[in-house]
Amino acid sequence: MTRRSPPIIGLTGGIGSGKSTVAKCFFELGIQNVDADDIARLVVLPGSECLHKIHQRHGDAILLNDGTLNRRGLRDIIFNQPEERAWLEALTHPAIRKGLLIQLDKATSKYVLLVHPLLFETKQNEICKQVIAIDVPAEIQLQRVMLRDNISEENAQKILSTQLSNKDRIRNADLSLKNSGNTDELNDKVFKLNEEILALTSF
Ligand code: ADP
Question: Whose CA is closest to atom 4 on ligand 1?
Answer without folding.
Answer: 16
